[in-house]
Amino acid sequence: MMYDQPLAVGGLELKNRLVMVPVATRKADACGRVTQALCDHYAARARGGYLGLVECGHHFVCEEGRATAHQASIAHDKDVEGLKREAAAVHDQGTPVFVQLSHAGSAADEKITGTHPLAPSAVTCPGAKVGHPLPRQMSADDIARIPEYFSAAARRACAAGFDGIEIHAAHGYLLDQFLSPLTNLRRDAYGGSLENRARLLLEVLSAVRAELPAGYPVSVRLGGCDYLPGGNTIDDAVALARMAETAGASLLSVSGGMCYYGRPGFEDTPGWFADSSAPIRAAVCVPVLLAGGIKTGAAAEALLEQGACDLAGIGRAILNRPAWARRETTKLRAANAPARGAAR
Ligand SMILES: Cc1cc2nc3c(=O)[nH]c(=O)nc-3n(C[C@H](O)[C@H](O)[C@H](O)COP(=O)(O)O)c2cc1C
Catalytic annotation on 173? Predict the structure, then answer.
């Protein structure tokens, strides 16, 4: 069995390959402060220590990058006390925990941030909600602030006791808006070629790395391929993964770009981004996580066995069934146990 093999991510040893991927809870208070309900939510899903890792849903790194009401904040030093309780809630269950850092860019909600949404170019994402305002194109000064927001947030994550961070560069959020040719029409050093479109993500990675101790795990949730006409391709995703690894990523969590986290037509295919994750895994040395449609331990095990990924990410199945990991681990162990009375 692959699912219960340990794996190193940076300097952290995971005891198995089953990961709860970030699923935003909207359980923070109106200011983004961690609540007891938010801590209880993660504790319930980590209970028993059956998961190798829990990744907490996106936390905004600055007010302008806030996506929704009741999203948790990692934008201010005063957030650290609450974040300590969030990390401890998962640690108390014997499970390591990462926190995801994000800036929503054009997907930020003006009604909550009080400012007009920012983006690489004045275009909305292909899947933006009807009526969402056209974002304002970011100036050079707007862009220069972004690595600093992420690195300050990384410092807070480390101070709060999280075992690692994840940079959100998928699902049509700000860093993904820079990566995709569908939303990045810039003609300066941040647009045009794939290298230019990746520049901001790489600057964020290097700023974050400079803030953290050596070996501290930094995951990138990579929306490498857009799966849309005119968008980034799987080859682009592989090239982006290589760049992120070189810039210091210790884990690549493969998901969708401008198609977000779903894959129309593949609803019944567990690991629906495997056609991206497998070539990425072949091209990099760091571990690769694959999520999307994995509902059972058996499906996770099959993807690990096939070499589609090193870690299986599970979202909604755990969201909807807090005891998912205990139940699926029990089934996997039973399936692997030698039959009673079998010849010795
Ligand atoms: C309600 C909800 C909230 C989500 N929040 C996040 C998030 O904060 N960050 C992120 O990278 N992905 C987020 N996702 C995407 C999930 O991490 C995951 O990729 C997606 O649900 C597909 O995996 P699944 O089929 O196992 O659920 C969210 C998905 C849902 C349904």
Answer: yes
